[in-house]
Amino acid sequence: NRQWILRRRPTGEIGPEDLELVETQTPELKDGEVLVRTTYLSLDPTNRIWMSDQDQYLPPVEIGDVMRGGVIGVVEQSRSPDLQVGQIVNPGLGGWQDYTVLPAAMARPSLQIPGVPMTAYMSVLGATGLTAWFGLMDIGKPQPGETVVVSAAAGAVGSIVGQLAKLKGCRVVGIAGSPEKCRWLTEELGFDAAIDYRNEDVGAALDRHCPNGIDVNFENVGGEIMDAVIGRMNNFSRMALCGMISTYNIDGQIPGPKDFARVLMRRILIKGFIVIDYLPRAAEAMAELIPLVASGQLKWKAHTVDGLENAAEAVKLLFTGAHDGKLLVRVSPE
Ligand code: NDP
């Protein structure tokens, strides 16, 4: 059983000494337990947060522990009447490892929808889709005709947010990091406009594309991009603070919005959220997401890297944007 162990907390970008791949013995199964072979491991921006010891929403991964990550897998051995060998299970959070031993109750059987690939349950029909749906619907509350801006718009969460906002009848403007990503947003996903933050002045572009100001900001990036968006938010607008990826590699305290007074003057609702808190309500989102995915109306992409041994290198793609869709590692064949 190969496992990625956190050896030290990264400073800045994740470095080669921070994680180590080791070989360990899989423990014997006890009654009520199952052995799950990981098929896909989810790599997420929040992995960098878990590697740090900053104040956060889950305990940090301890030095010497297996790195935490979302997994889906297949039951290889079972000492529980509730799960059969060969069943696909979605334990949610697991580890960066080939095999996991866990109580059957924690290895929940995965959704299985005809024609929908397993990677969807690690993306649009998994935590990614739930993040997009709850942040937008529960916090953003988009109304027809309103303007919605989403950052990291061509990413896993952002691309779903924009499409859902279009379905609600909104004007949708995405911010992303290349001309190709921007073209995908406008030409294939139906965004009204996309701003290439690496090659355009974001503020000026927002002025052009949001003539009526901004009613909903789905914030994935933080920093200067967030400041440019907040500076154009309307009276009684809403901001779902989903992530601040531009700050995750920075050690120390992160400043808030530059123009905080605007939050008062424009009576902006800013709400940070973590998808874990919404899991008890997952069915609400799934009721809308499943038919949209099954019918092909909601588009999504997975970027799959082969081999657990490549996980530590692959996670860095999230911070350069050199991936195309929900970043996953194929740990073993489906
Ligand atoms: P993505 O697929 O969106 O990948 C991250 C993207 O962020 C990259 O592709 C890159 O796109 C962009 N990016 C990286 N660094 C920067 C930077 N310095 N400035 C601007 N853009 C940058 O990942 P996810 O969809 O999984 O996550 C998106 C956001 O949502 C993250 O902030 C993440 O932490 C957050 N999140 C929050 C959850 C919650 O429960 N609150 C749950 C899941 C995700 P580009 O090429 O456009 O720069």
From TrEMBL:
* Database matches in CDD domains: PGDH
Q: Which UniProt keywords apply?
A: Oxidoreductase
SUPFAM superfamilies (UniProt xref): GroES-like, NAD(P)-binding Rossmann-fold domains
* SMART domains with a match to the protein in the record: PKS_ER
Q: Name the InterPro entries on file.
A: ADH-like_C, ADH_N_2, ER, GroES-like_sf, MDR_fam, NAD(P)-bd_dom_sf
Keyword GTP-binding assigned to the entry: answer is no
Q: Where is the Enoyl reductase (ER) domain?
A: 15-329
Oxidoreductase in keyword set: yes
Supply the PANTHER family for this chain.
Answer: PROSTAGLANDIN REDUCTASE (PTHR43205), PROSTAGLANDIN REDUCTASE 1 (PTHR43205:SF7)
Q: What is this protein called?
A: NADP-dependent oxidoreductase
Originating organism = Phenylobacterium ferrooxidans
